[in-house]
Amino acid sequence: MTAALTLESVSKRYGGFDAVRDLSFEVPKGSICGFLGPNGAGKTSTLRMILGLQPATSGRIDILGAPDGRLVRDRIGFLPEERGLYKKMTPVEAIAFFGALKGLPSHEGKKRARQLLEQQGLGAAQKKKMKELSKGMAQKVQLIAAVVHRPEFVILDEPFSGLDPMNQQGLEEMIRGLAADGATVLFSTHVMQHAERLCDKVVLLAKGRKAFEGTVEEAKATSPRVLDLEGAI
Ligand code: ATP
């Protein structure tokens, strides 16, 4: 098993507060990994360190053979927790814009945007502006924007939050499709059911520390408490 991502004893301290403590885990290449924990557990802080958006206070991170996300930026796709930017653009423009940031020529970005929107049943959305789309549609467009450059590693921060069950299912299918095409996926969530349906592996964080790493089945066998995320606070 080759690891696409390895964290070794990673910690993050804000002032006197330890947000992430001595965190180690691996994400195997080509897998879908769920990063679980209640609000405030340290998930976003960890994802930002993996992406190279903020430095770790201590420890080592290796993503796609590089010390942090900054050095392999064009090979990574990222869906941040804060969404809803570029409201005045059309979906094709927004997707091509993100592609361009990752080095994809504009005409190619637009072509791929149209293909991907059609594939996801969003053909009709092409004529609208981002601000006119439903939340579910906008979320799918933003995931397409995050992966239009065909990244090897896709990081999604709370991708299911605020979506109704139907749109959650659509997003799950998109994530499965990414892995089927060979990408490695790491997504954060505080809802165990999303991980159960999708993940080859889960890592559970509680108060900045790793509470569990393994398959969903192992997690269930180990202790039902492991799956009780609110109880893990
Ligand atoms: P959520 O889903 O609510 O975003 P999370 O698991 O992603 O939760 P983080 O956002 O990583 O958690 O935050 C972990 C802890 O670190 C929280 O207590 C938060 O208040 C604190 N924290 C995060 N960023 C900073 C910062 N820049 N300065 C100080 N404290 C911070």
TrEMBL record:
Q: Which family does it belong to?
A: Belongs to the ABC transporter superfamily.
Question: Keyword annotations for this protein?
Answer: ATP-binding, Nodulation, Nucleotide-binding, Transport
- Name of protein: ABC-2 type transport system ATP-binding protein
Q: Is this entry keyworded Zinc?
A: no
Q: Which GO terms describe its molecular function?
A: ATP binding; ATP hydrolysis activity
Q: Which residues form the ABC transporter domain?
A: 5-232
Q: Does the keyword ATP-binding apply?
A: yes
